[in-house]
């Protein structure tokens, strides 16, 4: 994970924001030196597993009209160096990647950061609003 900057409550879920880094950071999870990294989110709940939370967010993305794609390259950082599960979604030229690392099995929600200032489909506010309604 990157540096934790904040955590908010959304119903029975906690959404944490982590800062991504430039260059080689802990475990080489950052992109090449000089590439914009941005932020990624972690979502936890005492009721739902990381896989179940992933499925809930995928359902939300599907309802927004996003579709699963297989990108040429994933611009994500992974301290674990191995991904257990991954899905990449696209809508109106924006991409969001949901992935669970194989080391500590935590969900990452982030923009596919293959270009500078890339914007994802789902924002933190979108997740808060959606997850507050999940029981």
Question: Which descriptors would you attach to this protein?
Answer:
17% helix; alpha+beta; 135 residues; 7-stranded antiparallel sheet; globular
Notes on the structure:
The protein is α+β, with helices and mostly antiparallel strands and 135 residues long. The chain has one domain (3-132). 17% of the residues lie in helices and 34% in strands. It has a seven-stranded antiparallel sheet with strand order 1-2-3-7-6-5-4. Strand 5 (83-91) and strand 6 (94-101) form a beta hairpin. The longest helix is centred in the middle third of the chain and has 14 residues, at 50-63. The two termini are 27 Å apart.
Question: Tally the helices: what do you get?
Answer: 2
How many domains, as an integer?
A: 1
Instruction: Measure the end-to-end span.
Output: 27 Å
The succession of helices and strands, N to C, reads EEEHEEEEH
- Write down how many β-strands occur, each being a DSSP E stretch of 2 or more residues: 7
What does the largest sheet look like? 7 strands, antiparallel
The percent range for helix content is 10-25%
Low-confidence regions: 23-30
Task: Give the strand order, joined by hyphens, for the main sheet.
Answer: 1-2-3-7-6-5-4
Overall pLDDT metric: 83
Q: Beta fraction of the residues?
A: 25-35%
What does the overall shape look like?
globular
Rg from Cα: 14 Å
Secondary-structure content class: alpha+beta
